[in-house]
Amino acid sequence: MAARLVPVSDPGDPRLADYVRLRDVNLRKSLETEHGLFIAEGEKVIRRAVGTGYPARSFLMARRWVEPLADLLDTVDAPVYVADDATVEAVAGFQVHRGALASMERLPLPPVEDTVAGTRRILVLEDLVDHANVGSIFRCAAALGIDAIVLSPRCADPLYRRAVKVSMGAVFAIPYARMTNWRDGLDALREAAGFTLLALTPDQSAVPLDKAALGERVALLLGAEGDGLSSRWLAEADERVCIPMSGTAMANGVDSLNVVAAAAIACHALMRS
Amino acid sequence: MAARLVPVSDPGDPRLADYVRLRDVNLRKSLETEHGLFIAEGEKVIRRAVGTGYPARSFLMARRWVEPLADLLDTVDAPVYVADDATVEAVAGFQVHRGALASMERLPLPPVEDTVAGTRRILVLEDLVDHANVGSIFRCAAALGIDAIVLSPRCADPLYRRAVKVSMGAVFAIPYARMTNWRDGLDALREAAGFTLLALTPDQSAVPLDKAALGERVALLLGAEGDGLSSRWLAEADERVCIPMSGTAMANGVDSLNVVAAAAIACHALMRS
């Protein structure tokens, strides 16, 4: 099968509707939800998305990016819109440095219980709203052997373009699911699946992470930077754990890590058994 | 002493020259070097900069930000330019969400040997070019008890606005210095100051960080994401250390952490003794 190259030159071409204003978060959220799509950007990420089994709806790129992706484009039954840089920029709303864009079809997320079946170490993200943080945490989790990630109902979308990009495609490598119910979500994990729930908190009176007893199945709960975990989740956890801070830092008021740094340290600590 | 409030309304006012086009990296680099200044953004960061002893050249803010900073502005001998949001945005080139800006005077950096005197755990950053990464690493290092940071000659400036902001002011809390010479810089650290040099590498054949022998004085070398440490520095280190990756991740090609996540895990590991 040969790639279906389709030259385009009009930024208003309705066939390019999947790619409009990629930096307009509100527009993109509603557009992507309505049409069940997400955007992959750059050769590496596109290869991972296709390799994971997401069906491609279409591609959009300047001519020079066709050749590096030719082997993949030849195997995919989707149009490849080829435009000059100015047209791509006019559609996307910014200069697309990584060259190629793909519009991919979302797949239905499995239920939480299916996603965590057979896993030993998972993260549970509560209401992280920053897409870059979510993407970075997926990257850390994948590299450090976390088996799956569960998202609270309001947590940011891992398939949002910026999350996908920052994750370097790790959002495709690690299974994840979204709780349908924030209130009972933790109970379900503990009671049905037998996870020990560890709540990560900056509170230095909590158990240092390296000293926490890790059971057979551990779910580490991470809250958003700033607010941290909700008091409900903190209270429902089996144990509150912390990353010990330097005494000097505390005295200087430099007393916190960003959520990605904290997640990285925590994932590393979970690898120890 | 009362704050010297100076109403301004012309974005071209030469007294606001320190604040022009804050997102124009090339312009800012030359302007800040030439005038020996840096920009602090937001109440918290400004308080830390002033508290650390950097002299203020001036402030620029909308009227509503004066009150929260009034106690500090009353103690500082520098003009406070007060403008409406549109004027601030016209000068800075973007909408300044955190409200207040301060132009601060740089202080001469101490020599490397003075900065590392009496320290036990330091980071040495080789040619990190991303300001956000540098700022994030300072934040991790400060929170996790690193005593000082040494920069290679070409490493990005920790006092660049974005680095300062991302660091949450940690760039003021942790002493740092810049090598004058990349070629001999490591020798000087080892021979004059007695540091054991550990080079962090993604290469999984290196010694796992948690197993590395930590001497009395340890300098952890971090390279830029992508290229990593130069072969010269890798060869000059006393030991090459790595963060163990998950076998599944390696098989899936998700085989790397971003440099901030790696730095966070490494700083945490250095705290163990």
Automatic annotation (TrEMBL), chains A, B:
InterPro entries to which the protein is assigned, alphabetical: Alpha/beta_knot_MTases, Ribosomal_eL30-like_sf, rRNA_Methyltransferase, SpoU_MeTrfase, tRNA_m1G_MTases_N
Coiled coil: none
tRNA/rRNA methyltransferase SpoU type domain span: 122-268
Alphabetic keyword roster: Methyltransferase, Transferase
Record has Methyltransferase as a keyword: yes
Gene Ontology annotations of biological process type: methylation
Domain of life: Bacteria
Pfam families for the chain: SpoU_methylase (PF00588)
GO molecular function: methyltransferase activity
Protein's name in the database: TrmH family RNA methyltransferase
Gene source species: Actinomadura rugatobispora
